[in-house]
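Long-time lurker. I teach an intro course on protein structure, and each term I like to show students one example going from raw sequence to a predicted 3D structure in token notation. This year I'd like something fresh instead of my usual example. Would anyone be willing to generate the tokens for the chain below so I can use it in lecture? Attribution to the forum is fine with me.
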Amino acid sequence: MLHLVDASYFVFRAYYSVTPEMTDADGQPVNALYGFARFMGDLLERASPAQVAVAFDESLASSFRNDIYPAYKANREPAPEELKRQFAWCREFCRLMGVAEYADGYYEADDIIGAIATRMRLAGHRSVLVTRDKDLAQLVRHGDEFWDFAGDRRYGYADIAGQFGVLPERMPDYLALTGDSVDNIPGVPGIGPKTASALLDAYESLDHLYDNLHALPALPIRGAARLPGRLAEHREAAYLARRLTRIACDMPLEFRESDLQRRRPDVAGLAALYERSRFGPMLARQAERLAQRFGA
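-- Reply from a regular --
Happy to contribute to a lecture. Here you go:
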């Protein structure tokens, strides 16, 4: 199966969990690169996927979502310079490892993953989404898989509602109601996860829900009598949130199916990167093992 990796989560996770005292020959921090390289090496050894694509975010403040809503992700601190450098090194690592990597200044990693998954699905391929980001659950269809690699948990289409509250197709509508504080997206005040799940269990979409506001007081939901007025008052915010949380699967991304095929790792190039970064022999040995699977 095609494995689509949400790189930013794993790079940030490594940056904040691996000691910043890990530096290269020039004294520059390489903790995020080390953690990401370990993760990717382990993923490739464990899953041995024939097709892989890794998606990176280029900026927290330049996507089309910022054009729609300038406050989008404005609550996040800018990435420090030493982390920005390591993102570039992580992309270099992917290329040396023989893995396709993508980034875009106007679209986010989620959109890249959505575009690849959608187009490959039309060609008959199923995808494994390697992430912990619930937003990406909206992409899962029958035969796909959401793989929380860090937590060692896998969810198929039938598991998503139990884990995240709604069917995959309804995730943007769910987030439209609850909002997403992580991305500074407002929703409908007073509607939390349980209420949103119940509403979207009764009505399959935000549009269907708003077409039936008059019927909401009859639902067996706590505070149901107040829901029509609350939803009507915050209709604009709900629809804005859906625009922001819906993945842009139609983004203009140029790739061919053959681009996603794993290539033999550049063992010499990786060894040079690891030596420059003072990583020791473990990752170099792993690269050699991965290369051996491709034969001579």
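Some talking points for your students: The domain at 2-166+248-292 is CATH 3.40.50.1010 (Rossmann fold). The beta strands are 2-6, 51-55, 100-102, 127-130, 145-148, 153-155.
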